[in-house]
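Narrative of accomplishments. A recurring question from our advisory board has been how the design workflow behaves on a single, concrete structure rather than in aggregate. To address it, we present the structure tokens for one chain from the evaluation set, followed by the sequence designed for it. No filtering or post-editing was applied between the two.
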């Protein structure tokens, strides 16, 4: 399933959050959005997954306009954009079991798949902890486990590298590349060169650099 944005922008009052931009991630490819702080990467991800309506233009998930209220879009898109809600009285393992039941996983194999999902992220020994008992890097790994565990043909991650050490960044990059190789369409916002390089080795993978709206306006001023 491809994901695309056609000339989307976001303006709130006097603030331009995202200057007009078009991007397409073909089915089974990886698109990495780069750019300085404030250039609009998170805003574009929110538009692409239908969390935020664009001011101009339109985003699509497959053939459907990106709208998180559309059940087909919601079923397709696994996204980590902002902090997911967690329950203080559920262990990490319980969170994944809950997700599995929500997305109609096979109850007979749930325990094994939950254990693998945690160990894939290097937190297999933390399944009995509560979310508030994790370090910041472990919290990020748990959030990634939640996102990677649920089914989806589109995977969207905002700065998956946050708070991770170098070896965990490589681990996460390998998991993302494996998902892409299995046919998932992946869109990332990323500041990390290790992850960017590891996930963009395929022929249809892309890196797109966003430019902050003010910088673009300044550049146009000089040119004109
Ligand atoms: N609700 C809002 N109202 C006004 N401006 C906003 C709002 N939300 C974000 N912005 C601004 O929009 C711009 C783009 O923000 P965004 O979070 O998309 O950038 P980013 O590229 O993801 O940045 P970073 O690399 O720091 O995560 C920033 O200048 C930000 O200050």
């Amino acid at each position: 399933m491809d994901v695309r944005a056609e000339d989307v922008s976001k303006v709130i009052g006097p603030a331009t959050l995202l200057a007009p931009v078009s991007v397409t991630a073909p089915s089974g490819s990886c698109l990495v959005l780069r750019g300085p702080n404030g250039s609009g990467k998170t805003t574009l991800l929110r538009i692409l997954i239908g969390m935020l309506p664009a001011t101009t233009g339109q985003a699509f998930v497959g053939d459907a306009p990106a709208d998180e209220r559309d059940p087909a879009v919601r079923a397709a898109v696994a996204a980590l954009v902002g902090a997911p809600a967690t329950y203080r009285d559920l262990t990490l393992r319980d969170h994944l079991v809950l997700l599995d039941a929500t997305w109609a996983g096979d109850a007979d194999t749930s325990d094994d798949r939950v254990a693998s999902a945690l160990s894939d992220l290097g937190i297999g020994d933390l399944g009995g902890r509560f979310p508030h008992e994790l370090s910041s890097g472990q919290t990020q790994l748990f959030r990634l486990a939640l996102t990677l565990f649920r089914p989806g043909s589109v995977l969207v991650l905002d700065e998956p590298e946050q708070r991770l050490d170098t070896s965990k960044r490589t681990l996460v990059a390998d998991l993302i590349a494996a998902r892409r190789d299995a046919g998932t369409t992946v869109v990332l916002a990323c500041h990390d060169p290790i992850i960017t390089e590891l996930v963009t080795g395929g022929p249809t993978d892309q890196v797109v650099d966003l430019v902050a709206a003010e910088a673009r306006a300044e550049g146009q001023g000089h040119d004109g």
